[in-house]
Write a structure and sequence with these properties.
Length: 475
């Protein structure tokens, strides 16, 4: 039997407000336990929550960015469950009437594009944190995180592979950091993913029983967890077992998922409207003000890159995957680099070097101006591509500019066509058997002759010029 995996994501995005969603306590990360709390966060009797306007505004920004409906009236509810790091015994969230409804994002897997629809995005408060590693036989409770504003983003179950799920999570991560509503720090828990996975026979319309993988804070772990969980569910069904709806955790050390608890349904939380909070009403003028403040969005920028710079769709999509990369590219082109060459260098050598050193492009040691100067020297044939890679490596390790390094390393190309032609004549005379092979129809012999010429020129002759002269002389 052929199986199909069905995947939906719930992503908890920590909103980058200075204070919590219902109190004035700080949201700064890394403070001593229980120092960033207020009477509201620790649920002292008689205290009342007060809505943080900045959190609502960031939710509106997100809704507009994905083309969603902003509900003019939304309601906060109490989600009831008991856990040591939830002081009130309930979490303030939104249930029947969320602030954001619908919307979609486009993902790219390989050369394929797919539109993933969203169900909703709702505001809620975060819980505290149970700490186990510093205690023997006990757990500590840190309430610094309790009350931090979250936007929970829920997708439709439209992803059909681990690759699609990762592409969707990356697209959302890029978007929330692009519009500035979240810092996207997965290690600090600012962007946490819960993944719902089920399998069904291919062609079947009904969904299988889902299991939810909780709190994935790495795209790599997400992909591993989905692949393991998918295979596990298939094997269970094929062995005659049934899948039980459950919440599971992923262990990165073993690469396996393990059951944490049976999965609750909505009715288990006994949702009801929070009597301490009035309905959230969002006026049209507020939405218009937020819309006017939005930056150029990734899809719009991608389309502009294609039309303005004449680069392929794949290049434009890759360059606009992050705001920092897009800014770096535009600065490189503005400094004089050819648009397509700049794209090639950024997606190729620059990206590879950054990945090796686990750096973001914002921390790239080669500034756009210096990269542009290097590309210009390739464009005017001062150096060839191979030499340019050597110059880039030297630029990476120093603050020297391209021209200085080209002189220092002695990499300037020979542009004297007469000298190059004389060298080609010598190579042809010294390699008569190769010439004969080429004339007999062996194309590889031509490449071998080019290699001999480049070797004789010590890499300092323009390969295109050598190719042209060789073709002319060989007829």
């Amino acid at each position: 039997m052929t199986w199909e995996v069905v995947i939906g994501l719930e992503i908890h995005t920590q909103l980058s407000t200075q204070s919590k969603i219902f109190s004035n306590a700080s949201t700064a990360f890394g403070a001593e336990p229980n120092t960033h709390t207020s009477t509201v966060d620790i649920a002292l009797p008689g205290v009342l929550p007060v809505m943080n306007k900045a959190a609502v505004e960031k939710a509106i920004q997100f809704g507009l960015a994905i083309g969603a409906k902003i509900n003019r009236k939304s309601v906060f509810a109490r989600k009831n469950y008991f856990y040591p790091d939830l002081p009130k015994g309930y979490q303030i969230s939104q249930f029947e009437l969320p602030v954001v409804e619908g919307g979609a994002v486009t993902i790219r897997v390989g050369n394929e594009e797919k539109r993933i629809n969203l169900t909703r995005a709702h505001l809620e408060e975060d819980a505290g944190k149970s700490v186990h590693e510093d205690f023997h036989g006990m757990s500590g409770i840190d309430l610094n995180r309790a009350g931090t504003p979250l936007l929970e983003i829920v997708s439709e179950p439209e992803m059909r592979s681990a690759a699609e799920a990762v592409a969707y999570a990356k697209a959302l991560h890029s978007l929330v950091t692009w519009i500035g509503i979240c810092d996207g720090n997965m290690q600090e828990g600012s962007f946490r993913c819960d993944v719902n996975v089920s399998v069904r026979p291919k062609g079947q319309k009904e969904f299988g029983t889902r299991r939810e993988i909780k709190n994935l804070n790495s795209f790599k772990f997400m992909e591993q967890a989905i692949k393991y969980e998918t295979q596990w569910q298939i094997e269970q069904i094929e062995d005659g077992h049934t899948i039980q709806q459950a919440t599971v955790l992923f262990d990165p050390d073993t690469g396996e998922t393990r059951m944490m608890r049976s999965k609750e349904d909505a009715h288990d939380y006994r949702y009801f409207p929070d009597p301490d909070l009035p309905p959230l009403v969002i006026g049209e003028d507020w939405i218009e003000r937020v819309k006017a403040s939005l930056p150029e969005l990734p899809e719009a920028m991608q389309a502009r890159f294609e039309s303005q710079y004449g680069i392929p769709t794949y290049d434009a999509a890759t360059l606009t995957a992050s705001k920092a990369t897009a800014a770096y590219y535009e600065a490189t082109v503005a400094a004089g680099a050819d648009a397509k060459l700049a794209s090639n260098w950024i997606m190729g050598d620059i990206s590879a070097a950054l990945n090796r050193e686990e750096k973001d492009i914002a921390d790239c040691p080669v500034e756009p101006q210096r990269l542009a100067e290097l590309i210009v020297r390739v464009m005017d044939k001062t150096i060839n591509n191979k030499s340019a890679k050597d110059v880039l490596k030297a630029m990476w390790e120093s603050d020297k500019r391209a021209d200085a390094l080209i002189d220092e390393l002695g990499l300037k190309q020979t542009t004297d066509t007469g000298a190059i032609e004389a060298m080609v004549d010598e190579i042809l005379a010294a390699n008569a058997p190769m010439v004969a092979e080429f004339k007999a129809g062996k194309e590889k012999a031509f490449n071998a002759l080019v290699g001999q010429c480049m070797k004789a020129a010590k890499g300092k002759a323009d390969p295109a010029t050598i190719n042209e002269i060789l073709k002319r002389k060989l007829g």
